Amino acid sequence: MNGFVVGCWAPKIPDFAERLGLSKFELGLMIIVFGVGSLVMMPIAGAQIAKHGSRVVVRATAVCVLPLLLALTLAPNVITAAVSLFLFGGFIGAMDVAMNANAVSVEKSMRRAIMSSCHAFWSLGGLIGSGLGGIVIAKLGILGHAQLATVLAAIFLAVAWPMILADPPHPDAKKEKTRLPMVPLPWLLGLMALFSMVPEGAVLDWGALYLRQEMDASVALSGLGFAAFSATMATMRFAGDLVRDRLGGVKTLRICTLFAIVGMLLAGLAPDAEIAILGFALCGIGISNMVPIAFSAAGNIPGLKPGIGISVVTTMGYSGMLVAPSLIGFVAEHIGFAIVFMALPVLLLFVLAFSKLAHYADGVSGGGH
Fold this sequence. Notes:
Blueprint: H1 2-9, H2 13-19, H3 24-52, H4 54-65, H5 68-74, H6 78-110, H7 115-160, H8 185-213, H9 219-247, H10 249-269, H11 273-287, H12 290-298, H13 306-335, H14 337-343, H15 345-353
Helix pairs in contact: 1-7, 3-4, 3-6, 3-13, 4-6, 5-6, 5-7, 6-13, 7-9, 8-9, 8-11, 8-12, 8-13, 8-15, 9-10, 9-11, 10-11, 10-14, 10-15, 12-13, 13-14
């Protein structure tokens, strides 16, 4: 549901900008408002999970997400649009933290990895939402699309509602003050998630523009960059848990990071659009399981509540996807996207350097190593 709603928002952005008369710079500021909403609400979600358990927070935030596509479609002016976008980013982000915390609880109860599959369903939702968006907008109009998307999201939520695992907090958890962790481990895992998600944000927001402007690709072909990235990412996430149970978190993370580095370099050095799309596809294979492993590890840090560890890692990780794209756009305006894509693997070398921390993700299998 969460991925689907985000996917539905993507094709609405051009109309949103046109209706409110926003320039590219102003639209960039609006996208930052979405990011700020997420960054404000994610730590709050972590604190609420520690107090009430993740099921309560998942349900509450999911209900709050439901009307926001309609609010964004009907916003009459820039102020109401900015408020709607702040709430949209906030509740999407808070729901994300709660879902990941709940997935860690499910992993512990099942004693096997399921995080990658959960992220695969998010990718699948995003793929369906963005893939159908243009067609539905053409047929039903921008309001009809928002109404249909809201109804479908409500159906997804209704199906999931009774199945969400109850994870009550410890009786003493309510009395404790929720503080930011003072140990370095969640912050290092947060940096790993951040550096894994910056390339993802770069492909999401700028891949099509790179193919169009610097590779002279057609409109149809330029759309395939993100589609190839999403398709390989969703596929590999469905396979990721099996691979991780077999190889362990550390080896899986190292192999994935190498795939992402090769994919990014290939996209940046590509002589034509087809080779660049192949690079994005390889990058999708790599990034697919890097973030789920970081989240699983964050939920299994000894002596730290899962909700707190995950909120730190999620907040840092998603800030990479939310803040970095506007920075990348500014840099690329001066030096071109090709050089940016070639430079991004430097961030992935950090993930490789600290890949040993992924052994915490294996705590869910009962092995611990």
